Inverse folding.
């Protein structure tokens, strides 16, 4: 008879302390629905501004202030619905409410689309005159400058309004992907030779792939891939629709390519983009092949399979850590950032900003959602591993960033480019690693921390950079008219994996399906930005270690700046110049030095 290993709970059965407190957004669903109705009514206020933005500076300012106010309220209602759906995608009520919120958002976008069109109908000289007449418009300086930079790609007012009205439909591929993963995709349990049966979900697979037990890792992988394979054609069609949408929009808006359009949104040059991908793919691959060879030998394996890549190198020294223990450790590590930052971290850890339960229907992975004017919310799944502590520190980095940006900037100026957004999160991981190393002079602990640091670089410099390379290939193929199918996606994915790992890892057909795991493909050119953020945080963390307070002050200034400057200038506030490949090569060399130390330790 099989023994059952654990059971995934329904959402209603998990401990409240392990869930986030959504009453900080709305006391109940009824209050949320009342606010949705109020927002719908208040949209009508904008009718009085239509056709009059060019009449006076005060008209323009008041309209922009009203739009900001509406955006803040929309942010809260959308976040509330999204968080409920992320926590339990199997609940029909959550599904319905998320759809309702998306409809209201689409209506608001269509209703307000005239604002940008009317501003662009004015001359830049006229707008500058308005800014001189009304000091409040200075807060919108970058917003207005960005708008005029995009003027060549803005369509007629009627077309923009029509496209905005279709925004809910344009977001359908992402919604379908997420809904399928959380609501429909069901994995079969798997059994080991001793008769133990293990349940399997997206979140549980992330635990099994790091198991020290080779049989568990490989059996979990086989069961996981078996289910992915059943959905590959549907997911490929969904992703192909997303890509086609972007290709068509890029042509409509007169961009040279979809890549140009997506990078324009990030305010990143093609040179910066290709530098990030090419430098890491070329310079990191030899280091990671050494790491794979070390792992194969240390684990005593005849061959290292793709399912073995996340196996722990030192499984006998993998201390478990409770959430409370990890919280204390993270708080200690981040004291270097100063009392104000530390207080934000404390509030997040003690006031239920974090949803860490594992339940049926919960979204896989981890994220931080930061609605303006409210505290952030963090989603993750806690399984008492120290890797969880690094994930917690990472997401708290996002939280701290947007709390500081929100305290110092208006909603229009809060969000920086995606090119920077992963820097604050990875900085926290760097600081946590350094803190643990400083606390212990034990050689085995040092080795263990190096392995955790390599986990951070693996996630950002390997997993996400390979996602970014797949995106680069797929966009090029799509623009050339090549149909995007499951066969093509798997072939391209296997090809780039083989090019990166060489003969150090044995790849199977299932490895080609890993494009199905992440939602990042539905977020534009997001994956490669993880490595950009980690490149910047690596450089800044080394400066903090060397200089102390001056480097901390520069970093905090960059966080507080929010989206008031472009990403290149934002990183320069922290004394990091991303206009050349040098910081990237330096970060890759640092990864190489970690592997050097591991080789000396194991051999």
């Amino acid at each position: 008879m099989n023994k059952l290993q654990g059971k995934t709970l329904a959402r209603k059965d998990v401990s409240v302390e392990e869930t986030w407190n959504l009453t900080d957004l709305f006391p109940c669903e009824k209050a949320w629905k009342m606010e949705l109705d109020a927002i719908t009514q208040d949209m009508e206020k904008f009718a009085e501004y239509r056709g009059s933005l060019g009449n006076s500076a005060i008209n323009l300012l008041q309209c922009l202030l009203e739009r900001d106010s509406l955006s803040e309220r929309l942010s809260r209602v959308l976040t509330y619905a999204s968080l409920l759906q992320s926590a339990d995608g199997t609940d029909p009520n959550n599904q319905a409410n998320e759809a309702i919120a998306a409809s209201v958002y689409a209506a608001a976008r269509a209703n307000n689309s005239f604002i940008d069109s009317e501003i662009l109908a004015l001359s830049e000289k006229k707008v500058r005159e308005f800014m001189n007449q009304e000091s409040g418009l200075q807060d919108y300086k970058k917003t207005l400058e960005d708008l005029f930079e995009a003027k060549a790609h803005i369509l007629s007012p009627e077309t923009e309004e029509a496209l905005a009205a279709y925004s809910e439909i344009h977001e359908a591929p992402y919604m379908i992907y997420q809904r399928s993963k959380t609501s429909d995709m069901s994995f079969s349990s798997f059994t080991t030779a001793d008769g133990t049966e293990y349940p399997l979900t997206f979140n549980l697979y992330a635990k099994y792939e790091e198991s020290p037990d080779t049989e568990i890792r490989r059996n979990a992988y086989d069961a996981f891939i078996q289910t992915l394979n059943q959905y590959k054609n549907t997911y490929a069609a969904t992703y192909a629709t997303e890509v086609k949408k972007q290709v068509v929009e890029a042509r409509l808006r007169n961009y040279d390519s979809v890549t140009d359009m997506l990078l324009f949104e990030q305010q990143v040059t093609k040179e910066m983009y290709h530098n990030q991908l090419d430098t890491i793919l070329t310079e990191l691959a030899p280091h990671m092949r050494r790491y794979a060879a070390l792992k194969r030998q240390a684990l005593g394996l005849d061959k290292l399979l793709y399912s073995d890549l996340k196996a722990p190198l030192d499984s006998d020294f993998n201390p478990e850590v409770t959430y409370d223990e990890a919280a204390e450790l993270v708080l200690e590590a981040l004291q270097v950032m100063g009392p104000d930052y530390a207080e934000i971290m404390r509030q997040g850890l003690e006031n239920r900003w974090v949803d860490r339960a594992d339940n049926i229907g919960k979204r896989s992975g981890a994220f931080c959602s930061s609605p303006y004017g409210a505290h952030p919310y963090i989603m993750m799944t806690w399984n008492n591993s120290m890797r969880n502590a690094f994930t917690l520190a990472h997401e708290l980095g996002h939280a701290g960033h947007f709390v500081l940006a929100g305290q110092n900037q208006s909603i229009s100026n809060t969000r920086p480019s995606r090119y920077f957004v992963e820097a604050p999160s990875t900085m926290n991981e760097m600081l946590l690693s350094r803190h643990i190393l400083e606390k212990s002079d034990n050689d085995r602990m040092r080795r263990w921390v190096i392995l955790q640091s390599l986990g951070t670089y693996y996630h950002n410099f390997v997993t996400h950079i390979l996602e970014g390379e797949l995106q680069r290939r797929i966009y090029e193929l799509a623009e050339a008219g090549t149909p995007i199918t499951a066969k093509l996606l798997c072939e391209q994915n296997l090809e780039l994996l083989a090019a990166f790992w060489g003969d150090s890892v044995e790849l199977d057909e299932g490895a080609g399906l890993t494009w199905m795991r992440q939602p990042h493909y539905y977020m534009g050119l997001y994956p490669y930005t993880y490595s950009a953020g980690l490149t910047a945080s690596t450089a800044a963390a080394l400066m903090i270690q060397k200089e102390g307070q001056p480097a901390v002050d520069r970093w905090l200034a960059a966080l507080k700046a929010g989206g008031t400057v472009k990403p290149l200038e934002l990183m320069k506030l922290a004394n990091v110049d991303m206009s050349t490949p040098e910081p990237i090569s330096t970060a890759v060399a640092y990864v190489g030095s970690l592997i050097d130390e591991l080789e000396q330790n194991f051999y």
